[in-house]
Fold Diguanylate cyclase.
Amino acid sequence: MTKQLQPLFAEPIRLVPIAGELDEAFTWQVLALPCEHTQGIQAAAPERELLLVALAGALGGLIDSSERDHVMQRLIQDFVHVSSHIALAWVWIGPTDANSITPLFVAGRARAFGETLQLSRSRLTAHCPVFQCLQTRRTTYMSISPRSPYKPWRRAAADYGFEEMLAVPFDLGTESQQGIAVFYSNARGYFKDIGMQPFVALAKLGQVAAHQTTLISRLQLQNMLDPLSGALNRHATELALQDEFIRARASMDGFGLILLDLDRFKLINDSYGHPAGDRVLQETARLLRRHVRETDRVGRWGGEEFLIILPHQTIDQVFSTAERLRFEIESAYVKHEGRRIQFTASFGIITWAGQSCTPDRLISRLDSFLYDAKRMGRNQVRGADGRGSETLSLGAQIQEALETQQIRAAYQPLIDLRSGEVVAQEALARLVKADGTVMAAGEFIGAAHRLRMEWRIDEAVSRQALAHCLARAHQGQSLQRHLINCSADFLGRAGCIETLLETAQRSCAGCGDVMHGKSKPVIIEVTERQLLGDPKKTRQLLQPLLDFGFELAVDDFGSGYSSFLYLLDLPVRYLKIEGELVRRAVDDVRARAMVESIQAMAFRLGICTIAEGIENQVTSDLMRDLGIDWGQGYLWGRPEIA
């Protein structure tokens, strides 16, 4: 059989004698060169065909799977399934200099043997097919006999009927790693008769699976990285954060987060150009990766923000890391066109707060700490470890007020300056504290904005305003328009728009739609800042409400230089003139001229004007004389909770 297996090599196959155990007189022989060129015999063609068909079926696994091990396991399982003589097959993947080999997965009738098999390199095993295959990276064969001088082979032959074995290497695309598929036959001459074609093809498929896995891993890695900084991108960072939450909840072992934002980054871009800004971002990412642990994850959270996830960290450890990073960034610089550009960063830090904590809530709190670091002078670390956070304190109060329904709508009247009649009411947010004191919107809305809680406040106030409007209709009171403030956070959420529309539809159905025509007694009030920077997008978001009959007002008109442009793209029906401009118009000729100009323009466009902040009769009379339609201010009443 040795002669029949022998391929056509310039150097003939050598039979290597191996000394037996001390109590044995026999030696055993291994083919030290492979037998890849064996073609097999015609009588074995049907089974050879079955093996090749099994390989063809495995091609679908190559397409569907990105896991090399999964493909290899399926290959050997299919081989064993269609073969009448392969009693065992197993696959090993590991370093080329391995001294011990244990199968990764096994298949076949003798799998119990494979699952307990462990080959350790020794004087007796160094020339066995597996280690020969590992060393030469060539297919290697050996016959197995009950008379073998090596006791494990004698036992295997006796217990499982093994007659011969074949070790087939497959390339993993790296010098340090190697794969081997090993097959045991219970028929003498099986591998000679079948030929090497199916087994070499299997090795090629294993090689393709390995290379495919490597390629897919690289593509997945590229898809996870921010192309500029090399840090994780936003999506990958969010996934990493979710995984860390799952781990922390399962183990009750928390983690820390660092959110940093480069200080005055816009100034760097404006002064030196965007290439310089890119260099700063790249250097920041490099410093962050260099000065955190391998287990920490660094992601680019947005623009010039980076989020760092630190598993198994206490607040003291997180603070220490953040301070070290702050110092490294402060000490760094980049060179651009012969200039040294130095930069700093502000940091917010936090740790996992237990099972009730959610990613959104944790990030929201972290954002507030970062804002405090900016507000307190930049280039510093702020967190909840005694360093304080005014924003977080307000955020806790807002959260409690929302949960206990103590975010209340207060109503302030709007007056027709000619008739003196109340024509509308504006719903303004108020927070009723546990001790009964009331906070005006100006005291907490900034914190709500930073904590991304504005939409929840708008939702509560708008719901109450629609209920208030309906109640007045049921009581037979005069119909008055209700102005509802809507933040960009609210307008940008399709669910909020849908909920407001559904609530309005129910309210209008409840009052019998006493308004004549399509118009409804609700005015959506937005500021220039809340127009999302894109009037057309704002109109698209508002269109369902406008179609239903809501009207649109622009608040604080005159406080922004581009306010006039919004009138071209939005169906504005009301302009609320900013209170400071109204008050200054009494004594300032230029301010008065500006109010006159706004009124003249609004009149030509068919827009109703509303003067805000009127606190005395002199201002009211002036606004009326200038042609302003409505007035609002403490002269007629402060906002009152209904």
Summary: The longest helix spans residues 197-224. The longest strand covers residues 422-432.
